[in-house]
Amino acid sequence: CLDAASGEVIWKHDCRREYGGVARDADGGDAWFPPCGCATSAIIDGAEVIVSVGGQKAGAFAGFDRATGELRWHALDDRGSYGSPVITTLAGVRQLIGFTGKRMVGLDARTHELLWEHPFEAEFEQTAITPVVWRDLVIFGGEKRPLLAVRVTREGETFTPEVAWKSVELRPYITTPVV
To answer: What are the distances in angstroms from CA 39 to CA 34, 36, 121?
Structure first.
């Protein structure tokens, strides 16, 4: 976090140093932290800065105090993703929607509880695009996978994601689709 007028550092985090290093995978890499590091764009939600960090210490998503940099909350003990999350209202609930290393998820934006998930294992966990929400669809893709549109419905407190369509011709890897 920089002071906009002076460029002076107000606070910062070295996510790999602070939150990585809990366990190693079979190749000797960090089992929870993305191999290329914390590469998403942070998003602002009120008084918080939300980042896809990854792992058991900071979770797949972490919310930092916008003014102080203090870790306020974290959710899901998954590996992080390279795709930036979004905040939107879907199925009548304000949600944080984004990739973890192996799934697309929707979290309650207030409580950070998991509302729904859709498995999505891209090669090398290369989930680098930002999900696009259009009406009741979450549109996303990843390395060597078709573009998917998942419809999220709600009955009572149960959220259900179902594939509405997929396109094998469109396989976005890094570029986020637009509606």
So the answer is: 9, 7, 18
